[in-house]
Amino acid sequence: MRYKKKPLGPWLGLAGLAVALVLAAAKFLPMAKTRLSLNRAQPSVSLLRTSLDSLSSSGWQLWCRDSAGSDPVLWQIAIPHSLPLVKANLMIQRKAAAAGFSLSSAVENRKKGSLDLEFIPGQGPGLRISVIKRPTAAQAKNDFRLALAAYEIPGDFGRQLAALAKSKTVKTFIVGRRLEGRMNKEVVNFLPLEPKGYPKVDPGPNAILVDDRPSAIRAKLSRHLSMNDAPGLCIHKGSRAVEVRTVMDEVADFCGKKNLWLLEPLPTPASEASSSCKRFEVKYISPDVYISSQSSAAQTTQQLRLGLALARSRGRALVLLPASEPVLKAAESLLMRNENQDIKLTTISEILP
Predict the structure, then answer these.
(1) Over the stretch 224-263, which tens digit does the pLDDT of each residue have?
(2) Higher pLDDT, 294 or 136
């Protein structure tokens, strides 16, 4: 069988056109790539600086050092002490990306409170940003205050008084009885309130009850205040009366008129003490650390160390601890060490907000 040969003219023409298009594309693509790279926005140092400067109203401060030749530009930023480094890192990266920068590395040192960022250079030098946290007002002045307040516990009261008299660290004593003579401590009076489980649980004489009339509450408050010349009152933890607004309003009103502050050892969500103090503009304070009379020696030391750390980070801290000899000795041993001499030991009145 013989096949008829078809003409190749049209196909050759199409093949030639395809080859021509491929060659043209190969010639054009490098030019297009070059044009795209030229049109792509280069990292803008001035844009990023303007963007970061806008954060000055939020407590940020920026220092810039120009590059020397091929050295990277170095910027230093001080951020508010309360701002987490993670959040600052994210904010800077977003602003840098908007200005055309690409992150190369980010190293965070939480212990030192610092952050180092490096960005890939464009046509010019690279960019390094070093972030540090501003010191708190207390850190700037090296003014760290720690108040240790010992509270009376069941047992030999005379022994507690003797141990407190020797203590160089405890400056405040919380007591529920009249003291004979003068102490070299700030004295705070306990204020017994109706406890949960009353009357099976006896709060003692002159306790403020939920059903007391306002006049009866004021009379009991006056009797408790007259026990000792005290700058403040300490309400009893775990009471029912502290959860009743009318009772706590009477207590706060009395404290306001007598220029007293109020201490709440263990606040609960249901407590009305803080809210009442706000309404009557009375100074209110609760401890940062509460050491139970049941705490072991190791737990006591650990909690005292926490109090020291809080004093250094916040400038002020309050630790409530039982007036027992082992606890007072542990406090003396830890706080009188050389490394803790930057801490000023004070009364509660000296750290009030």
Answers:
(1) 999 999 999 999 877 999 999 999 999 999 999 999 999 9
(2) 294
What integer is the mean pLDDT of 290-296?
A: 92
Residues facing residue 346 across a β-bridge: 147
Cα 332 from chain centre: 27
In sequence order, the 6+-apart residues with CB closer than 8 A to the CB of 58 are 80
Q: Which CATH superfamily is domain 140-351 in?
A: Glycoside hydrolase/deacetylase (3.20.20.370)
The yes-or-no verdict on residue 39 having pLDDT over 70 is no
Greater pLDDT, 265 or 108: 265
Homologous superfamily (CATH) for 45-134: Beta Polymerase, domain 2 (3.30.460.10)
**pLDDT band, residue 19 (cuts 50/70/90):** low
Question: Any idea where the domains of the chain sit in the sequence?
Answer: 45-134, 140-351
Q: What is the mean pLDDT of the chain?
A: 85
Q: Are 311 and 317 in contact, with CB atoms under 8 Å apart?
A: yes
